[in-house]
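Sample entry (113 residues):
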Amino acid sequence: MLSSIFGAPRFTAKVTTGDRLGAGTNSTVWMQLVDSTGKVSEKTCLDKTFVNDHQRGATHTYNVSHKGLDKPEDIAYIILWRDRTPVADDSWLLDKIVVFIFYSFRHTKIIFK
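Predicted structure, serialized as tokens:
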């Protein structure tokens, strides 16, 4: 297991909202990682305090929890959802998410589109 060699990994997610009219959202967005054994990480709120996240064409980077995974170096897929806002028409167009796994001496990049 790589974590025993390189120490505990650190995960970040670079989230890009689409660049179309109405693509942004004011909803709270959440994310979980799922490893190749099917274990699911704790949920992570993708929100920065005092920043209008997830707006049209915006890209932001967030720290992501990997607690609960058996094989954190082997991410199979992600689970992503958002809360509803009181605004009737609050759609969100996600362009892509890039998950980075950082170890002491190397990193891995996984792109979800």
